[in-house]
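During the practical work, I selected for study one protein's amino acid sequence and its backbone structure tokens, as given directly below:
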Amino acid sequence: MEQSDRSFFASLAAMVGISLAFMLIALNTSVVGTAMPSIVADLSGYALYQWSASAFLVGNAVMIPITGRLGDLYGRKPFVLASVLLFALASIACGASQTMVQLVLARACQGLA
């Protein structure tokens, strides 16, 4: 069995970072699900109601295998950091959306991140 060069605290920090990223995604999904009826009413976009969730899931399904392979080739850390940054920017875009189409596109960007 090979011993890792990583210290206990570096391993713990990595685990906490990944856990926080997963928590961010779970929190975003549950908060948006709860608030979506009010958001749809404010944006008058009931016709696109399901697309807000579907766009996130489609983007997520597309990017998971791609980033998984790239992470295997080049290391996972830069992809996790880039994903969290892009997810935060897409979340800001969701909050700034003025129409339902903008919200759906921002949710798709969240899924891609």
Observations:
- The mean pLDDT is 86.
- Residues 8-112 form one domain.
- The chain has four helices and no strands.
- The radius of gyration is 17 Å.
